Amino acid sequence: MRMKFTKEMTIREALALNPKSAEVFMSFGMHCIGCPTASGESIEQAAEVHGIAIDELMEKLNAL
Fold first, then answer.
1. Using an 8 Å Cβ cutoff, are 16 and 3 in contact?
2. What b/e readout covers 51-60, taking b as 16+ CB neighbours within 10 angstroms?
3. What span, in angstroms and rounded, lies between the C-alpha atoms of 52 and 44?
4. Could you give the percent of the chain with pLDDT greater than 70?
5. Is the pLDDT of residue 46 over 80?
6. DSSP 42
């Protein structure tokens, strides 16, 4: 069974789940994949800080 990305997971957890998620984050202008905050804030929090629509981001991540 394939794991799904969730809004609650951190960027670091998303990268561990599927390294190709880095491409999705970068395509949305989220270049913080190596920052310390990548392991401290959720994908949803990071999207909010960057002004990104969370539903669109989650759709792209879960299409990987």
1. no
2. ebeeeebbeb
3. 9
4. 97
5. yes
6. B
Helices (H), 1-64: 11-17, 21-27, 43-50, 54-62
- Confirm if 44 and 58 have CB atoms less than 8 A apart: no
How big is the chain by its Cα radius of gyration, in Å?
10
Q: Which residues contact 38 (CB under 8 A, 6 or more apart)?
A: 10, 11, 12, 15, 32, 46
Coil, strand, or helix at residue 10? strand
Backbone angles phi and psi of 42, in degrees to 5: -75, 165
